Structure formats: C-alpha cells, structure tokens
Amino acid sequence: MMNNKNIKIGVIIPNIGMTLEEMEIRRRHLLRVCHPNTSVFLVKNEFGPKSIESQVEHEQASVEIVKQAVLLEREGFDVLIPWCGGDPGVIACREAVKIPVVGPLQSSCVIASTLGYRFGVITPLFKNIKLVEQRIWNLKFHHFLAKVRSVDIPVLELRKDLFILLETLTKLIKIMIKEDGADVIVMTCMGFFGLPEELMKRVPIPIIDPGWAAIKMAETYAHMKLAHSKYTYAFPEK
Amino acid sequence: MMNNKNIKIGVIIPNIGMTLEEMEIRRRHLLRVCHPNTSVFLVKNEFGPKSIESQVEHEQASVEIVKQAVLLEREGFDVLIPWCGGDPGVIACREAVKIPVVGPLQSSCVIASTLGYRFGVITPLFKNIKLVEQRIWNLKFHHFLAKVRSVDIPVLELRKDLFILLETLTKLIKIMIKEDGADVIVMTCMGFFGLPEELMKRVPIPIIDPGWAAIKMAETYAHMKLAHSKYTYAFPEK
Amino acid sequence: MMNNKNIKIGVIIPNIGMTLEEMEIRRRHLLRVCHPNTSVFLVKNEFGPKSIESQVEHEQASVEIVKQAVLLEREGFDVLIPWCGGDPGVIACREAVKIPVVGPLQSSCVIASTLGYRFGVITPLFKNIKLVEQRIWNLKFHHFLAKVRSVDIPVLELRKDLFILLETLTKLIKIMIKEDGADVIVMTCMGFFGLPEELMKRVPIPIIDPGWAAIKMAETYAHMKLAHSKYTYAFPEK
Amino acid sequence: MMNNKNIKIGVIIPNIGMTLEEMEIRRRHLLRVCHPNTSVFLVKNEFGPKSIESQVEHEQASVEIVKQAVLLEREGFDVLIPWCGGDPGVIACREAVKIPVVGPLQSSCVIASTLGYRFGVITPLFKNIKLVEQRIWNLKFHHFLAKVRSVDIPVLELRKDLFILLETLTKLIKIMIKEDGADVIVMTCMGFFGLPEELMKRVPIPIIDPGWAAIKMAETYAHMKLAHSKYTYAFPEK
Amino acid sequence: MMNNKNIKIGVIIPNIGMTLEEMEIRRRHLLRVCHPNTSVFLVKNEFGPKSIESQVEHEQASVEIVKQAVLLEREGFDVLIPWCGGDPGVIACREAVKIPVVGPLQSSCVIASTLGYRFGVITPLFKNIKLVEQRIWNLKFHHFLAKVRSVDIPVLELRKDLFILLETLTKLIKIMIKEDGADVIVMTCMGFFGLPEELMKRVPIPIIDPGWAAIKMAETYAHMKLAHSKYTYAFPEK
Amino acid sequence: MMNNKNIKIGVIIPNIGMTLEEMEIRRRHLLRVCHPNTSVFLVKNEFGPKSIESQVEHEQASVEIVKQAVLLEREGFDVLIPWCGGDPGVIACREAVKIPVVGPLQSSCVIASTLGYRFGVITPLFKNIKLVEQRIWNLKFHHFLAKVRSVDIPVLELRKDLFILLETLTKLIKIMIKEDGADVIVMTCMGFFGLPEELMKRVPIPIIDPGWAAIKMAETYAHMKLAHSKYTYAFPEK
User: Fold this and answer.
1) This prediction's pTM
2) Count of H helices and E strands in chain D?
3) Is the ipTM of this complex over 0.95?
C-alpha cells in the first residue's frame, strides 16, 4: 500500500556558466520538498547561452536541452525538468522523449491559479515584460494574470546581494498587491529559487518557488504514472 | 536537507451513505501516491446528501463540509480535501479556515492542462453535462476543454460492476479522442477513483485520477508551505 | 387583447434579521414599477445568516432559499426572487422548482449590458471585490465589466445614514466614470435599493436598481410565459 | 405607491411594404404582454427596403429609422423600438435621441442568457448565418451561442403558411437541442413573432418572442427611468 | 514572370466637403507606396455627411458609399477603398460588389498586429473612444488593443495646423508607450494621413498610416487575385 | 511622387535539402506579385532539418535562421522571410536584427482575417493539427479559426504529384466549407505555394498562398517604412 517508488528526476541546466557548487545548492533546495525515494540529478549542457533573456537564447538553449533530454531518457530518468523560468525546450522535449517533461513556468502558473484569482508575475528584466506576457498567453493562463512586472536586474546579477534582492522584491510585491490586485505571485526565473519562502514571511500572499513548483509537478507526474501523450506531442521525424 | 515533514491530510466525505470499508479502500488508494510521512484521514459528515448530482445537493454538502473543515483545522490538520468531483465547499472552506483546501476537480484540470492541448471531461450523468461545462468555465479552464461527456450512470451505481464500467469508459474515451480531439481525460466524480490507472493501459492518452490529483496537490501545498491568501478568501463575518 | 394576467411574485428574504417594517418598505418600492395585477409577497427565511458577505454565508443562505422556494411553488407563486445581490440559491432553485427564479445580480447585469459599453460594479465591502469579479465572470458578463469598487461599509450598516451613503456613492461613481470608463453602474447589494433613482439626478449615467431589475425581469418571464428549462436545470435526485 | 405611469412606445417599421392590417396584428400581439397604461404605436417609414436580409438593407433601413426616431422623440414618445431582428438603427438612434431605444435582438439575447447555458439562434436565410454570428459577437453574447441555423425561407414568405412554418421550426429546434446543445432559442427575425408561444407547447425549452422581448425591455427602461447615457452614445455633430 | 498587372484602385470619399486640391494631395500620398502600374482614382460622393464622427454619420456615409461602389465596379475598377478610418460601407460593399473592398481601419489593425504585442489607437474626438473600442472588438482585434486615446480635435480641424498636431501626437504617443504599454500605433482617421512617417522620426515605435495601409492591402488583394467570398458576403436581395 | 524604391528581400530557406532549381521556381513564383523594383534572393541554410514537421525541427531551424538573418542584414537586405509555414525564427529574428522579419503564417492569417469570418487551415500532417491550433492561438487569431485539417502527406512528398494534390485539396476544402463553415483557407506549409491560384478556380472561397502573403507583407513593411520596434523585440544579450 505504501508508496516506495524510486524516482530519478533529471534537471537540465542550459546556462553553461553555472558552477558545480551552485548546482549543488539548487539540488539541496529541491530535495527539501521531495519524497525520500526521489533522486535529483542536475546535468549541465555543454553548449548554449550564459543566461536566457531573449527568444534567441531561449531557442538556442532549447536545441541543447532536447539533445540532453534524449540522453537522459536513455539513462533511465523518470522525469525531466529544464532549469529555466521561460520553459525552453519543454514542448520540443515532450516530442523527443516518452518520459514526462516539466515546465517550471507552466507548473508555477497552474499552482498559482488554484491559490487565488489573479497572479502577478515577476521577471528579471524590464525589456522582457511583453515576451513574458505572451508566454502566459501561450499557456492559456492570461485570464489569471494581474500584471507582469520586473526588478530590472540581469539574470546573472540577480543573486549577487540576496539581502537587497529581498528588499526590492518585497517592495515590488506590495505594489503588485495594491495596484494590480495580485493575490498570488509567480516568478519567471529560476534565479529567484529559495526566495519565496523568505518573502512569504514579509507579504500576506502566497508566492510560488519555481524550482519547488517544478519538482513537485515532476513527482506528481511520476507517482500518478502520467506522461505527455504521444498523440499530442508526436515524435519528430527522426 | 531531507524532507521529513509530517503532513496530516483530512479528506471530508460529504456523502452520508459511504461505509467504513469503502472509506478504507479510498484511503489505501490515496496512500499509494503519498510521501511516507503523509497521514491521510477520511472523515464522514453526519448530515448531507447521499450523492451529489445537482447544484442543490452541491450546496447542501457545502454547508456541512465547511462545518467539518473548521473542526478539522482545530484538530491540527495541515490540508483538507472535500471528497467530491464537483468541488463543493472548496471556495467557502478557503474563507472559513487558514489551512489550504484542495479542489479535486480544480486539481485534475490544472494537471490535465499541462499534459496536452484539450482535455475531455467525463461525468456520471447526462443531465449534468451543462452544469459541469459551467464549472470548467468558472475555473477558467474552458480554453482547454474539448467536450464534456457522460456514461449516464448514477453516482451510487457507478462502481457496481467495475468490469462493465471499464468497458464503457474505454469505448467512450476512444470516441472522445477521435471525435472531440481530446488528448487528456479529466473525470469529475470521485467514484471513478482507481480506474484511470487501468484505463491508461487501454487507451493512448493520460487520464487523471481525481483522488490522486487532489492528494498530490495537497502535498504540493503543504511541502511548499502554500495556503490560500486571506486577502483573497476573506474570513466570513463570524 | 389586454394583458390582465395576475402574477404572484415571491421575494425570499434570506437575512433573518430583517424587520417586518423593513420588508414593507421594500415591497412598496418594488410595486412602484409593477403591472397593477402583479402581487408581491416578501417571505423571510427562518434560518440563515444575518447578512451575506462571504461565500460561506452565500451557501448557507442558498440551502434555506431552496427550501422556501419549494414551499412557495406549492402555494402557487408564479415567479421567485431571492433578495440578495449575490444571487444565492438562484441556480439551485432553478433545479428545485419549475417556476422561473430571478437572479437580481444577473438581471442587473443584463439590463446594464444593453445601456452602454462597460458597467462598473459597486459592492459594499472591499474584501468582496474579487469574489464579485468572479461572479461577473461566472455569469459571462466579464467583457462588459469596467471595474468592481466598494464603499467599504458592512451590509447591515449601509442604510444607517442614507444622506452620507448618497454622498459617498456620488463621489465613487464620478471616479468610476473618469478612471474606469464606466458608463453604467450595477450595484451588487439589495441594500442599495431605491438609491439609483436619486443618484441618477447627480451623475450623468444610468444606474441599475437591483430590486427593480429583478422585479421587471420577473414580470418579463411571467408575461412571456418563460421558465428555466428542466433540460438545463435538471431536478435534483429527490 | 402604485405604478400608474403612462408610457408611449413607438415601434418603427422599416419595411415599407407592410400593410396597415399587418401592423395592427403586430400591435395587438405586443399589447398582450404590456402594462395597461402602456400605449403602443406602429409607425412605418416612407423609404427603405422591402425586407432586411443583408448589411446593405440593414444600413439603408438604419438611416430612415434614425430620421423617424428624431420625429417621434419630438412627439413625446417615451421609448422606441425599430421593428427588425437585426437591430438596424439601434446604435445610431441611441446617439440621435435622448429617449431609450430598444434592440429586439439585443433584448432577446439578454433574456435568453438568463434562462439557460447556450442559446441557439434561428434566422430566415441560410446566407445570413455568418452575418448573424457576427452580430451576436458584436453584442458580446458569443459565449452563450450554441449555433446559428436557418429555415432558409425569405423574410417576406415566412408567414405565408404558418402551419408549415411551425412544423419546420419544431423539427429544426429538436435538432438544435440534440446536436448543438441549445437550451434556449433566440429568433433573429420579427417575422417569427407569435410563434414561440406555440412552439413552447411542442419542444421542452424556452423560446424568445423577439417582439415581446423588445416590448418588455421597453417597459423595463421606462419604468426604471433608464436611458442610454449620452456620455456613451454622444450626439452626432448636427 | 514579372508582375506587370495594371490595377485600378477606386478611393471613395464620403465627406462631401473635400476640395479637389485636397483630394489630389491624398492621391499623391497614396501613389508614393504603389506599384508603378497601379492607378489610383479618388471619387467623391455627392451626398453624405461633412465628416464622420458618429454612428449616425457612419451609416449615412455607408449608404452613399455602396451606391458609388456599384458604379465604380461597373466602370472596371479592381479594388475599392472607402476613405474613412471607421470603415463605413465596408461590409455592405463586400455584399454589393464582387471586387475586393478594403477597410482602412481593418488594414491598419492587421498590419499593426504583426509588428508588436499591443497597439494603441488614436482617434480625433474624446467622445468617440467607446465607439472605436467597440469597432476594434467587432474586428476581433481586441486582444491586441492597449488603449484608445484621442487628441480631442474635430476631424475637419485636424489638419489646420500640422505643426501643432505633430507636437500633440508626439506627446500623446509617448504617454501611450509609457502608461498603456503600446508598442505600435493605429490611427482611426484618414485625416492623420502622412503624419506617421514624420512621427516615426520622433518616437521609437512603428505607426501605421491608414491610407498607406489601405492602399497596400488593396494591391495585396489584387496581385494575389483575392476577393471577398460571395459565400460569406452574399449579394443583397436586389 | 512615384514609388521607385528598390527593395531587397531575403528569403531564408531552412530546409537543407532544397535544390537550386527548386529555389529558382519559388523565386519566380514570388516575383509574379512583386513591384518591379523588388529583388528577391533565396538563401539556403547550411545546417538544419530536411523538413520542419515538429517543434524540435522548428527550433533547430530557428537557430540557423537567426544566424542567417544577422548575415543578411549586414549585407544590406531590407526585409527577411524565413521560408516555412510555421514561422520558425520569426520572433527570434525580430530581436536579432533591425530590419522587419515576415512570418508567412502570420501574414496568411492577417490577410485571411480580412476576407471572411472564419478561415480553415490546412497542414500537411495529421499529427501536427494540435501544434498548428496552438500556433494560431499564439498569434491571437483563434477567434477566426474554423478548424485545422490535414491532407496527411509528409512535407517532402507534398509536390510529388501536383495533380493528385490538387484533387485532394479540392475535396478537403469542399468539406471544410460545408462542415466547418470555413469561408477562407490558410495553408500552413510553403510546400503548397502556387496551388491556391489553381484551387480558387475550383472552389468558391479565397485561398491564401503563403509565399505571396509573405512577399506582399514584406513589400508593405518596406514601402511603409515599418519595422518591428526594438522596444518590443529587444536585442538579445550579445
């Protein structure tokens, strides 16, 4: 009767500059919400952009993520998570492999949609706001969207001073509650991982950790034996 | 680093006719996908309808579910799940208590929305099709809806012959794939619990078990420390 | 050729605290816009909340409204109106009885939708704004919605000083015209009855009296011999 | 306290071929659902199309309807109704005069939207189906639309054999219930006046008489003292 | 292989006050973006309004435009463009003739929709903002709409001082970029012709010239041999 | 006054298998609708998929298209067109270069949206139907969509027997008119180029040639001096 299922989750890191130490910090963060029999492996791509802040980089990353996904499926992974808050490679991977592939942005949106009426979205750069709006639209969660706002900090500088980042986010979220009517917050960058837990002590609304959203969705798929239908996500030609 | 969190999930049974044995079968089914430190308790309401097949019964059930929810919160439960595929009492409970309250229908829809482009919905009775369509609309998942269909069997007779039910569902789902373009199936009645696992061996698309969807969402909320914002779901007057 | 039809309209009061005198004031207000052969009876529920300011109270009221509706149908009423601007019991009653059941909020929205391009909505409490937005969505009138705003006064204190309330509403409506682009106003609380007539002398846009909207819709149903189809609102099991 | 208001409703006939006898039959039909103090006058335009079955004729009729509306307002009418199921001249008249102007199609749609979940629409000619769909969209009632179907009979021949027309409509509505899921019927031609009463004896769903819908909406506006805001429908230049 | 097609485009001027000189200025402006084998003829209606600033004038103009269109088709024109930013007569003409009929507003919207995520719309008069919003809705481009704003200058005075107009528009567009998030601008009045070219030197986003949008769409239809289907835009009765 | 502008359009071929002869046939086809001063150059990518029939191949192609676009911009091209009916690389190129980048699918949809009420879409493979539906959604043209259908022939075999293909398409389009209510046809594969001209002799509705739609949109952008705003499509990091 008990759930002793061993699950092997592969987290694909598309940003080639991430250090092993940084990867270990993320792995530990993810394990904090997992089933004890869940193993989490972070695998970094060899090629790709340093950070993903445009559609150009998104698609560059996507191509490499798909290659990685095919390898990881062969190695017996049960679920895959591309580690990026814009969901690069998610649709393509669902075609290329049979195991389920989690979109961190998609997972964050679906959880957020159950917690309130309108979620606000925070993205690192101001220049990406319209791109993010379009992604929420593509996911068909636009009816839940209050507004997309940014802290206007490049992805690679986000975590340079976590204290200042927390202050900035706290102020921003208070504005989003008051002016945009946001009652839940979604963060479209994995660089914000770990902060929602802290932020929820400072503001009165739920905030989705994109890493945790992804890992819990991965476990949900695996424990429920769900995968993306090949009827929908047909195999590519070759 | 490991997740040793003990979680106590309360499942509220609004159908007063359910036997202790039936409840135990459902509890065991739920535990099959849980974290080992998750405890699941099923609690039956004293008053309410035998089954919930109308808005009238939905609201009768709701009032009793809210009362039960307030008691269970006091007893230290971490998350609550009203056991009905129409989500009775879910909004009201989110007002009445501080702990998160899971909607099995809502949970099924959000998971389904990530697995394909259009989900079909199966409800027991033909006469409820329009009511169910309206509920999908209210949840703002109408853009994902292929079509609602029914097996036209009353809730209390659903599980009388599981073999026939499986046959009926298999045929119906094949029609939904072909004629409605459904690529995922959502089942709006808890009476279908356990069958998706079996059905997925017979049809090539993912099918959401409403019980498992609810229990995994419950764990997701609890492990991520999320609850419905009181800003959104304000306490009732008294 | 003339319309001599005698119509008996039952107005169900779910708020148990309303006095007989208050009920008579409302009855006289309603009669001011009726056909001379229309009789209006106000009937107060024995159980239920003092006021309805949450989904919890909404559903508590609903259960009692349905019981009352069944009794009134047996007594030969032609149309029923639950007296609440959130339309509690409206869907359930349409299942439970054969005679038409009017939603005051729904009636206000449909009339408002014909008078301009975007209506603003006023609700008593700030904390209910999101709940009201959701209700407009559920009714599928969201495309007509400018914005929901509140006077932030509890329902039971609304009419304590009608002079101040008129001042407050006048100011609020002027803001709604200018900032929200509202060109019609809907009021989601029966406690505002009688005020629209006065307000229309002060602001240049139409304002819907929820009581009058309901009673005119009741007459419309009755004179046109319309009722909610049992095909759509199927009888509950018992 | 009683409603003794005398209301003078002007019905503008844009079809220049209608005889005085035909007009009197329509007037008597309308009076059957009116308040005893309501007077109904039918006024025929001097110029315009014989029937309105295209956007070309719609706009030709509209120009004449506006001229008539300006004259009738000067003569002290309280409300105006252009007698056509496509609502020609309705928006223009709301600009040109201060008194309320009723759209029979709009009135039918709003009433239908309160009686079920999806209304089917019947229009005389097959070639007009897409035009009618567009009009339902323009009115923002597309979310309620099941499907538009036609009897494919020209407007001027519709009432030549009412017996056959009733048979044809009965069959069509049964198809609309079964195949389109329609639970209410809207008729976009005044030529169908009087038939819904008969049809409702033959099919189990409500059917809106466009003439009655318009006249009851006219009374609703007048008794509630509502008119279209000049803020929204600004006067034309001259 | 080369495209030597001679195309004759008829531009119908509904504003009876336009001088021959003004018409020639417009013709030259249009030719600046045409194929060398494209001929452009401007034809002024004999009757109609001086300017089109209301639905009343819109429909008055429409009736005359249709008459003109029928004549021009007989004279061998290949495409027609009613010269008004509100698209009067466009739908009616598509019924009345077989050759394609261009809507300047529709053409502007479709081009704008390909250049960014949300276009702002500028209309001459404040009082027309809601009417213009409704037209964008009717065209089904509402999802692309940032906001409609006006310079609040009557059409006939728009071009009295082009220098001031350019200043006013520059300021307005900067506000629309900043406050409304507009990334493209559509102008719903032909009176703005020629200004977008100038404005694009002052603001960093694309601005659609409604005249050029129409004439390029006209060439597109003609060169691609496309016309509006008579299946959709059926001939009027006579 | 005349338009003597020389325009240099670069058509990027992502399918590495296309022969020079096939490219020349396409170039000649495009020139048939161009301005005489428009030059069209077809440039084939060195790397990439043989055909694009999945999201995987779409993104592989996209990365190569962007590289090519950057080179072509440096060489002085005025507008670019990726030659694929799924619009790969279109959004990314709009970030990477300053000159306008045309989406053939987007161009086809916007032209189609002006010619009727609902367009049908034809795609080569059955397995791609849902992917194409999602793309129409992403472009926000879903309100115009009748239905997506396929001839179920792989892209590389489409033109093997043009006679049979024409027969197949003719039959399919007749079904789409009758069953789906399509009044315009969009073809989401460049492999269908040239056929619409032929098909329009056989069926009574307009059909968009995706190549011509793209080239006319390219000329429209260039002649109107329009480009995608860098405000919207921000440059990528490097």
Assistant:
1) 0.97
2) 8, 7
3) yes
Is D55 in contact with E92 (Cβ distance < 8 A)?
yes
Instruction: Note the pLDDT tens digit of each residue in D2-23.
Output: 888 899 999 999 999 999 999 9
For B183, which residue in chain F has the nearest alpha carbon?
F130
Co-location of F161 and F181 in the same domain: yes
Per-residue pLDDT tens over the stretch F15-26:
999 999 999 999
Tokens linked to D58? 């719609």
Q: Which of A88, A16, A10 has its CA nearest to residue A51?
A: A16
CATH of the domain at B136: 3.40.50.12500
Mean pLDDT computed over B50-61? 96
Rounded to 5 degrees, what angle do the CA atoms F157, E224, F140 make? 75
Structure tokens at F9: 């359009």
Q: How far is E191 from chain D (nearest CA, A)?
A: 17
B2 exposure class (CB count in 10 Å sphere: 0-12, 13-18, 19+) = exposed
pLDDT, tens digit (0-9, with 9 covering 90-100), for A144-164? 999 999 999 998 999 999 999
Minimum-distance CB partner of A110 among B103, B113, B177: B113
For residues E116 and E185, state if they share a domain.
Answer: yes
* Min distance E45 CA to chain F CA atoms (Å): 25
Of E51, E55, E138, the CB nearest to D138: E138
C-beta separation of A197 from A213 below 8 A: no
Q: Are chains E and B in touch, 3+ Cβ pairs below 8 Å?
A: no
- Chosen for mutation from D113, D114, D115, D117 (greatest number of chain B CBs closer than 10 Å) is D117
C-alpha span between D15 and E36 (Å, rounded)? 47
Name the DSSP letter for residue D101.
B
- Residue of chain C whose Cα is closest to the Cα of D24: C1
- Report the candidate in F229, C53, C74 with the shortest Cα–Cα distance to residue B233: C53
Interface test with F, best of B115, B117, B118, B119 (most F CBs within 10 A): B117
Chain F environment of B116 (Cβ under 8 Å): 130
Q: Look at A54 and F234 and tell me if their CB atoms are within 8 Å.
A: yes
Report chain D's terminal Cα–Cα distance, integer Å: 41
| Mean pLDDT of the B164-191 span | 97
Does residue A176 form part of some domain?
Answer: yes
Indicate if the pLDDT at residue E5 is higher than 70: yes
> What are the tens digits of pLDDT across the range F32-53?
999 999 999 999 999 999 999 9
Q: Please report the residues numbered 110 through 169 in chain F whose beta carbons come closer than 8 angstroms to any beta carbon of chain A.
A: 127-128, 130, 134, 137-138, 140
Tell me the CATH number at F90.
3.40.50.1860
* Cα C155 to the center of its chain, rounded Å: 14
Helix ranges restricted to H, chain A: 20-31, 55-74, 90-96, 104-115, 129-138, 162-180, 195-199, 210-223
Q: Are residues F125 and F83 in the same domain?
A: no
* Domain total of chain B: 2
CA distance E225 to C14: 66
